[in-house]
Amino acid sequence: MRILALDVGTKNIGVAVSDELLLTAQGRQTIRRRNLKFDLSSIADIIRDENITEIVVGLPLNMNGSHGPKAKEITAFVEELSRLSAVPIKTWDERLTTVQVERVMLEADISRAKRKANADKLAAQVILQSYLDSRRKG
Asked: What is the pTM of this model?
């Protein structure tokens, strides 16, 4: 049993997967977006290969908690993904995730090129770890 987290952007989809005990999140890869069919097929492969039982998708809410244009795009993506797979899908508030990831990478003195290459999967990892932590608290 594993949980998959996705940080869906316009160019890339960051991917993270939990361990089997649902304690930790590991950043796995970044899917370079081509088109919806390719994106969904790539995710379907991960669901199958990793024995995924739940999916968490980062939802970019506005700072006041409202749904802006990006959140609506993600909601539409989640609807398409739900047609592809019977695995339950939840959205998770990802406000400030990118800022948090950038700050950690800057503090770790990671080069600009490496920050850019890893930001999406690290954002997915932060989303998933936040979700896993909330499950233990609740």
From this structure: 0.89
